[in-house]
Fold these 4 entries.
Entry 1:
Amino acid sequence: MVSPPRLLVLAAAAVTFVAPRLGAQSDEETLARYRLTEASLVKFTQAARNFIAAAKADSTTREDQDEDDSANSIAALAALYDRHPALRQAITSAGMTTREFTTFEMSMFQAGMAAWSVEQQHGKFDKVPAGIPQENIRFYQRHQADLQRIQADLQRIGEELRALEGKAPAEPEDPLSRP
């Protein structure tokens, strides 16, 4: 089984490096259509808290699995969460499906990267890639502190769990070093 720190690293990698480059048109279309909302933020926040608690408490989610199990799409990441009953329950008990949780997560990271780009362009949206909804960027800008806090909490739990397992902290991947 994939350990929670690995789940978090896989999720971050999928969102940050893989999702924007996916050839899977369905993920791009899903992210282009998905809108971050106040209601989904409330559910996602609770699901993330539940996820963190479940990852800390459930030792079965700490078992290692082969490297072939990388999640590189919304469906694959949702399936990864579904294979861990405690994590699936953590997400669904907050009123989200694992697919919705993953879609929100990817949309949030995508909007965050685009919000940074807009900030660098002094508020101009003209450099935002097509397919990233401006509504999601504005939502991210309004809720940036909360969303960054959730992201930091998820990252922190991953590091804590890696420390419990006696493993070195995961090093962030440099997207420029990829072939």
Note: The helical segments are 4-18, 25-33, 38-57, 74-82, 85-92, 98-120, 134-142, 144-164.
Entry 2:
Amino acid sequence: MYGLTRATTTLIAAAGAGLLIWIGTQINDETVGGFWAVYGLIAGAGLVMALSQLLGGWTKWGWPRLAISFLLIAFVPIAVASLWIVLAAEPGNGWFHRHVLSWSGDIQIGGLVNDLKEYVSVFAFGIGLVFGYSFDTTGPVVRDRAAVGEADAVATPARRRGVLRRGRRTGADYEPVGRDADAPLTADREAPVTTRDREPVATTTTRSTDGPAPADRETTRTTDRS
């Protein structure tokens, strides 16, 4: 299905690019305005061909965006070199045309520029094509399967301990009522502790039979009945 979609968009784009080129043949390129109109249409044909691959799923769909790094590193040098040839082939005696020819002679590339002027339409097409390659997509938004599985899964109730499963829950998500789950265990020790009343303490007194009465020793035995 992906290959069929890409092939279809490429075919449609080729038809559109051919139409633009045909329209360019109907314009007189002997004037400066006609010249730029013709080669602007040819550059548009190259742009259409590049965008057809983008829209056809070459970058796996997604929203298109302009790749700044590609634009600066690849497109700008190619555009400057191609426009140099296009300006050299411009009819008339415009300012850019004269200076490009003069600068080409100064850096000893005048012969090369004159030879490449015969294929100015190829350079115009390449400008539009490379500019279309400057667009890219981030790809489709894919949901994390693990996160989706956790979200869609049915929560299993925590089991209880004790007789007849009526005791305390043992699940990891169990939080005791009335206590902060994030608080340390020693936090409960700071809370006031309620104590129950104790029963009276029984005291047993044993009198020693040895010695005089003032020297009696008393032994107290305390029993805690709590």
Note: The longest strand covers residues 202-207.
Entry 3:
Amino acid sequence: MSANQACFPVATMARVLGVSKAGFYAWLHRPPSAHAVADVALLKRVRTVHASSRQTYGAPRVHAELRAQGEKHGRKRIARLMRDGGLVGASHRRGGPTRTQRDQDVRPAPDLVDRDFTASGPNQLWIADITYVPTAAGFLYLAVVLDAWSRKVVGWAMANHLRAELVLDAMEMAVGQRRPKDVIHHSDQGSQPGFNRSSQRLCDPTAAVRQRSRPAFSS
């Protein structure tokens, strides 16, 4: 009734809901209970812990952090306050980012390095992969290309999707910066739709990229 006072008369709402106007006004001016006041104070501390974790802690970890600080509260109470306050932790178990998987119907490319990830000089062996980064706006995907000799990132790209252009952008940055003559590009055998076809344009006279597997990535 309080939330709809601006839209409907109190008398009408009381009649529809079967309550008295006097009872509503008594409730409206009644001071909050001690439990409600304690909930407000606890929610402030919960918000502090949640913000300190960069909004990654869920109810179990917030509860554990408060216990470590000497506060004793029920875990269900913490969960209720976080739910009422719109606080959500980052979860990598359910509803997390999409990962790529190997395409079982496609024959994998030959292994050009035979699990030997050493190199005697720069731009001989590049190693590529994808991972994900939780942010306040959701998960972002990061594709990287590393030089096996220097262990330096020579190309990278970030996006909110796992489409082919993500890994192509990382590869093109590496090729544009290093201009290799003959380099082995090594990745796992996850599949990224369209990347196998699109990657052929990277194999030009200025950068002969030989790929160890289907040119796709997985974290």
Note: Strands lie at 125-135, 138-147, 153-159, 182-186, 208-211.
Entry 4:
Amino acid sequence: MDAAYAAIVETFTVMPDAAIAWLKPGDDYAIGGIVIHLVQSLDGYIGTLEALRTAGFRDTDGPGEDEAAVDAQLVHARRGLAPDERAATFAEMRQKHTRLAELAGSADEARFGALAGVRYPGDEAVYPTSVALVVQWMTEHYAEHVPHAQQLFAEWKSAR
């Protein structure tokens, strides 16, 4: 997970401020909106691991979402990052990545891979979840957005 996190950070390091506010026509969020999206994902996964830990790594309800906050994050992701919020947003992502890693690392070996049923708000089904799966999901999420951000950056450069 740490290597995937480092890869997404490195991907954005080469991008000028003007690029991270660019919204490709038809897309849901600007290039920098990817970072907002990843922060939102980290929030959800942190909430999931906290719920699992509180429940003793047994079946539990997943974290709820504040719909107004989610809507505000989507608006922000569409707008992208302004130059003056870039450092703070990346610092927030780093802090939340660290928190997720700490929560994952606090599970002993038996609990790390043990599946528990998590019922997420708005979903009737119980979803098999483990600390290992949450780490895998976040790792994959970082990794999928590396080529995505790189492609958008290339398109931004071509559009200029």
Note: The first strand starts at residue 60 and ends at 61.
